[in-house]
Amino acid sequence: MTDTRATQPERRSRDKPALAVRQPPPIVFVGGTGRSGTHVLAKLLTRHPRLAMFPIEARFHVEERGFPGLLAGRVSKQQFVRRLRGFWWKGFQTRRMRGLYRFVSEQRFERAVAAFEVNFDADPEGACRQLFYELLWVRAENAGAEGLVEQSCDTIAQAPTLVRLFPEAKFIHVVRDGRDASASRVAQTKGLIKPRTRRQGLEWWEERIRRIDAGARAIPPERLLTVSLDELVLLGFRRGLRPICGFTGVYGHKKMKRFFNRRMSAELAHSDRWRAGVGDRRAAKLERLYEGILDRFEADGVRCAPLLRRTLERSQAPKANRPRPVAFLAGDETPVGVR
Fold first, then answer.
1. Residue 174 main-chain phi, psi, to 5 deg
2. pLDDT, mean of residues 7-29
3. Which neighbouring-strand residues pair with 172?
4. In a 10 Å sphere around its CB, with 0-12 CB exposed, 13-18 middle and 19+ buried, how is residue 171 labelled?
5. Beta-carbon count within 10 A of 105 CB
6. Per-residue confidence (pLDDT) for residue 1, from 0 to 100
7. Which of 12, 199, 283, 314 has the greatest CB tally within 10 Å of its CB?
8. Euclidean distance between CA atoms 209 and 334, whole angstroms
C-alpha cells in the first residue's frame, strides 16, 4: 500500500524562533448536503502546502454501491468493480464527462483494481483501504503534501464505514442556511429531477441533514468539526481560520488568507439567495416551513441545529441587534470559541 506517513516538518529560517511542530492528519473528509459549501472549504484547506485536494468527488467510498454496500454484503465484489470501471472511472454527468480518469493514470488504476480483486476476499476492509489510497494519494504525492482532503458530500453520512476504514482521518461537516442550500439545489436541477420546487428543496435538505446527523454520531468527538459557512464568512480570515487550522494541524498560510479574502464573502457565498424571484407572501411561507424544520431538528437533538438557528435569527434581526457569529461546533456539540 502507498506509504502515507508524514514527511519532515516544514523548514524554518534560522533567524526566526521555531514554532511547535504541527501535523495534519493523512485524510480530512469534508462533507455536507449538496450546495452547502463543501468544495469551497476543501479548496481553502488545500491552499496550505501541507494539504492536497482530490479535485472531484471520488464517490466510490461513500455511495451505496460503493464501500458501504460492499462491506455490508448488499453489493458483490463483481458489482462494485463493474461500477468502479464504469461510472466512477469515466461517466457522463451534467453535460460533461467526469470521473477518476481525469486525475489517475490508467496504469495506476488497473494496478490498484487488480490488487483489490485479489485481496478483497481474504481482507475486505484492508483491500478497500488500500484501493482508496492507491487511487487518491497520488495527489498528495505529486504536491509533496502530508495530508489529503477528500470532498465527496456523503462522507459524514457514511462515517460509520469510513471511521472503521480510516481511523487516522478527521471529518469536517459544512452546513449552510437550509433556505439557501435548498434553493441552490432546485436551481441546479432545472426542474428535470427532484427537487423541482422550493418546498421539495427544503424536504430534500431536511432528509440529508438527518442522514448526516445519524452518520456523524459514529465519529469520535475529537475527530469531528462542524462549520457553518454563513457564520465563517462573517468572522473573516483571522478569526475564522484559527479553529479550522487548529483542527487540521496546520498553521494559517498566506495562500489561505488570499483565497479567503478573494473567494469567501457573504456576497460570493450567495447568502439570502433563496429570496431571489420570490414574493413576500411566498417568502413568508417558505420561512415558516424552514422554522418548522429547525424546530424538529432541535426537538430531535440534531447536532448542527444551533448553528442553523443562529443564522436564521441573524437574518430576522435588525442589523444593529444581530447576534455575533458562532461558526463552529466541536464533536461533543460544544461551541468552539473564537478570540
1. -100, 125
2. 56
3. 30, 225
4. buried
5. 11
6. 46
7. 314
8. 19
Closest among 193, 302, 259 to 49, alpha carbons compared = 259
Q: How far is CA 109 from CA 2, 65, 103, 145, in A?
A: 13, 19, 10, 21
Residue 293: the pLDDT is: 98
Q: Which amino acid is at 293?
A: I
**Please, are residues 59 and 68 in contact by the beta-carbon 8 Å criterion?**
no
Locate 59 and state its grid cell: 464517490
> Of 4, 31, 24, which Cα lies nearest the Cα of 224?
31
Let me know how long the chain is.
Answer: 339
72 DSSP assignment: T
Nearest residue to 28 via CA among 7, 52, 48:
52
Residue 270's pLDDT band, with cuts at 50, 70 and 90, is low
State how far the Cα of 219 lies from the Cα of 44, in Å rounded to an integer.
23
Cell numbers at 224, concatenated? 469531528
Average pLDDT rounded to a whole number, residues 262-275: 78
CA-wise closest residue to 45 among 304, 185, 232? 232
Write out the three cell numbers for 328. 463552529
Angstrom distance (rounded) from CA 339 to CA 325: 12
Q: Does the pLDDT of residue 185 top 80, yes or no?
A: yes
Q: Sign of dihedral through CA atoms 45, 51, 56, 57?
A: negative
The position carrying cell 461558526 is 327
Per DSSP, helices labelled H in 120-192 are 124-136, 138-143, 159-165, 178-189
Among 167, 165, 171, smallest CA distance to 150 is for 171
What stretches of 159-315 adopt beta strand conformation (E)? 170-175, 224-228
Judged against a pLDDT cut of 80, whether residue 86 lies above it is answered with yes
Nearest to 174 by CA among 339, 337, 27, 307: 307
Biggest distance spanned by C-alpha atoms of the chain: 65
> pLDDT, tens digit, for every residue of 199-230?
999 999 999 999 999 999 999 999 999 999 99
Residue 269: per-residue pLDDT: 61
